[in-house]
Amino acid sequence: MQEQVAVTDERGVIGRSLDRITTRFGRKPTDLVFRGITLLLVFIVIAIVIGVAVVLVVYSWPTIKAFGLSFLTNSAFDPVHNTFGVAPAIFGTLYTSAFAMVFAIPIGVLAAIFVVDFCPRPLRIPLAFFTDLLAAIPSVIIGLFGFLLLAPWLQQKGEPWLQQHLGFLPFFQGPIQGVGMLAAGMVLTIMVLPLIIAVSREVMLTVPTAQREAMLALGATRWEVIRYAVLPFSRVGIIGGIILALGRALGETMAVTMVIGNQASQPSLSLFQTGYTLSSVIANQFGEATPGIFLSAVIEAGLIVFIITLITNILARGLISSMQSRGAKGVRV
Amino acid sequence: MSTSVSERKESASNPFQPPQSARGIQRQFNNGCLIVFATLFALLAVGVLIYLLFYVILNGIRYINLDFFLNLPTPNGEPGGGMGPAIQGTIILVGLASLIGIPLGIFTAIYLSEFGRGRLANVVRSLVDLLTGVPTIIFGLFAWVLIVVPQQTFSGFSGGVALGIIMIPIVARTTEDVLLLVPREQREASLALGGTEARTTLRVVIPAALSGIVTGIVLAMARVAGETAPLLMTAFGTTFRNTSIFEPMDALTLRIYNFTLSPYQLQVNQAYAGALVLILLILITSFTVRWFTGGFRRRF
Amino acid sequence: MAFTVQHLDAWYGHKQALFDINLSVEPQTVTAMIGPSGCGKSTFVRCLNRMHEEVPDARVKGTVLVDGFDIYARSIKPRHVREHIGMVFQQPNVIPTRSIFDNVAMGPRINGTAHGSALRELVESSLQQAALWDEVKDKLDAPATDLSGGQQQRLCIARTIANKPQILLMDEPCSALDPISTLQVEELIGQLKESYTIIIVTHNMSQAGRVADRTVFFLLGKLIEEAETEQLFSHPQKKETEDYISGRFG
Questions:
Q1: Is A106 at the interface with chain B, CB within 8 A?
Q2: Which CATH architecture fits C3-92+165-245?
Q3: Whole-structure pTM value
Q4: Which of A77, B116, B252, C40 is most buried, taking the most CB atoms under 10 A from its CB?
Q5: Could you report the predicted ipTM of this complex, rounded to two decimals?
Q6: Chain A partners within 8 Å of C87 (Cβ)
Q7: Residue B166 confidence class, pLDDT cut points 50, 70, 90
Q8: Architecture of B84-250 per CATH?
Q9: Which of A118, A218, A225, A323 is the mutation pick for testing C, counting most C CBs within 10 A?
Q10: Of C15, C28, C23, C30, which Cα lies nearest the Cα of C218?
């Protein structure tokens, strides 16, 4: 029995008496209940996570059984002939994401360098506010921007200009439609950029001043300090951020769906072609999906997205946390 | 010659002003490039955002009026419509989502910060982190398959479930972060006075972390208010008044999506207005949250 | 190189840290800066290679003449100053992602002053001058972090020397080291004195007694007294100096 110190207590006599009882395990009943509820809710969360994976696998089983790996190579989502394949979707996903990475990485890392090294003091906080704000913009609004402003502009000015001046490159050949890979790539760049800036910024801020001073004392220019002291130190974390951004690009749905055209073209390197991504397939086809092979094909597309983003996520977090074990302070993304 | 000593020294070789070498020029050039590009790209990032904001605000503000907030959308772009049900739907959906997301999120955070030790806690934490990386359309699929398909109808309920799942890791993470910030001494003091773990957590730790927890919840709610993909296949959207959560339900994001792609200019105008409302929501929450967490005073 | 400091003031934002410092240093001597914590000795030394101004909101006013040239002249870039005035820091700050060789070679590499075999010779001679060559000559490609604390500090010294400065600034170089390493570095300073002008900041008065030709006493941002080391310790002129030396404060 434990003495209860007089503490203001609105729980009443029964409550207070309960507190006096210590069970055999050294715990009080209220604690057991509390712990019980907590554990129950935690298990619900675990169940949900596992449930999502299980549901995806179970419901895509019919298509997995029917097509196996050829699901990844078949080129049409064809309910009429009952053949389903996501090859063009995978191509679209990879192509647009690659485009976004090619642009977002240099822009993002350099912008982060600006924020960390060059930014005049008074501008620092507004700048951080703006980058965080960019990250918070819902993708449907970026999609609106892409569809109503960017795509028409690309069709009338941007893509013709590119074709005129750089048309010898395979990227800029083919019919111009405004919507397509280029628009989708640009929109993805906008979505992914703030993530890269944020992670790079956080990681570069953890570089110890002593390292920078070591280079400065040797007579290094600002660029040399960054190249030899800052970047090598933060390289791992920045790569982690890049992989996270890649994961987001691969899974992005709304903005891409609105500007990619959602129509298969002959796959080529052209940035002007329309196409679709795995996520846009899901968004566009679920309504048509009849139960059976069609439905499970849509789910399998989801399963593929799930697996891809799972892998990138695990990789990225592994990298970022290995930076933390090297002494960088908590970089929570 | 009447040059002073210092002037003569200047013209003699000053070791701190070496003659320009090729290497020196190269280094200066590289440095200059860095400064130019870093500044340019930072301005680009901010510029895009500002351009986007202005684009939406300027286009949308013309169509904001009371009708917009109250009326149903009109068919085929006839004038006079609004997004009343859409806004109402978003509010209801976020409310439903909160019923799921907040308790599950907070108790997961309590588990991780107060009780969790060892293997299970690490597993839970990893699972929660994993949850954040999953594209939200997957949760829509999940709810679609488990609720919509068996019930043979789209419903606001399934939408709320999907959004709720999305909320869980956001709430859990921000809550865990602030709970861990509460100094251990406060817990020890409460336990030393004979308080139970339950009382310690509920009456001491959580109130101490309350502002951070509320911040996390507000951020999570703003996040899910902006989600579209998971709602496509759950709530689905409707142009009629929302009647019950077990029927298709409209949402602001769904309406924006729909109207943006519409061939009718009047509906496109409404899309701008809706986007403006959504952006205002995000702006206000971002700003307020930063204000209250001292994000404007943070030292870099 | 000889240098002269005239009327030097320094600020951190609005807080003034150095007040009208005047000092002359002869070439190929070791001068120690002593004083209690926060007295400005580190700030002073960082003004000598223009590192102080790297701190945000920091400001310097005054003249530092090195061989007659004012290093704070408008037309002079700080990085050129630092090529001639090197610095060793309190905590050894080797670049962890690079090998021993690369660390020492870093200065010449970025300045472009040596390549190929000339660079290898330069690295070897710098490591020899830093009394580290024998210990690392077989593992030049090993990561710099493989070395012990004392070795890392000597590596930092070698790295600074490889840049061929004329003046060496040392900001409490032994405070993070064990006694044996400390002695090794002090011996090193004795040898380096023949080629470099050395300024060493130390909170350890007996260290000043062991290595320095002249000693300067700082207090609250002001230069209180400067004299030949033995003279300063045995017959201090100012009361504050005497109080500090006899341990009455600091």
A1: yes
A2: 3-Layer(aba) Sandwich (3.40)
A3: 0.85
A4: B252
A5: 0.90
A6: 213, 217
A7: very high
A8: Orthogonal Bundle (1.10)
A9: A218
A10: C23
